[in-house]
Predict the structure of Outer membrane chaperone Skp.
Amino acid sequence: MRKHILLLILIMAASTTVHAQSRGVKIGYIDMEYILQNVPDYMEAKNQLEQKAQKWKQEVEAKKNVVTNLKEALKAEKVLLTKELIQEREEEITFQETELLDYQQKRFGPNGDLAIQKAVLAQPIQDQVFTATQDIAEAKKYDFIFDKSSDLTMLFAAKRFDISDQVIRVITRSTKRNQLNAKQLKEEEAKQAKEDMADDAPASDEKQKSLDNKKATREKIIADKKLAAEEKRKAAEEQRKQLLAEKEAKKKGVEVPAKTETLKTTDKTDTISPESQTKKAIDGTEVDSKQKAATERERILAERKKALEDRKKKALEDREAAKKAKEEKAK
């Protein structure tokens, strides 16, 4: 059976390969046992069935006691009874034992009352789970959804792919809708929308983080380009001023000293022109501005990252709290 299921999955996966190339394959799973334990109607009916099963067990114990008493009585009185009476007692014991086995099979056998009533009890809920799973798969574009409690072996399953709580909510909603008026129904739909957003929060946070990273990279490239353009503009301005100064000096007949650096070999010290010193001061200011801009960008990115992590942590905590509240309510 498992081989057939795995073969079916491989065929389905192969058929969706082309589609998966345009977008990632979306996979989820449910835990049928967990869902059944958290559906109030099922748990109530299950408790009633367990009470019946307990009563049947008591009846089985009573019949066992009858057989045990008959055997002990025969053992104690056997020396006083005739052969015909002993045979009659043994036949009675055999009849009681046969009746006991028949009753056990009737109540607890593979096709007994307990197995049949369990199947009848679970069938409507399983149908609801199937319908709810289909709705979730179509609404949220899932490619595959598996049942963790089935014969299919799942060696590992990440919790973020578990949609069991979503299935429980869908089943609970359909039950509540029949009991709510228009105003209550509107409030319930708003609450459902928030819960659905909480389910998609981890994926949304990852997407937002990726968008923020791309935006930060884009902003850095733009800032670097602006800085390079500003440096080029300043250099051009300096060159233009120098040319104008040389032109004015020529008109007045004044010799303009060349803008060079001379090195004295005697004391190995540099003699730098005033224009070069001014340019170095401007370059130092530009370096400081770049460092400040880079520091500011790093601070903004760190704050955004922390805010995203806080939002993600809060969403996970809210989900866990809601889950614990449901478990407490179910208990």
Notes: The chain has two domains: 2-6+24-199, 200-247+295-331. The chain is about 80% helix and 5% strand. The longest strand covers residues 27-30.
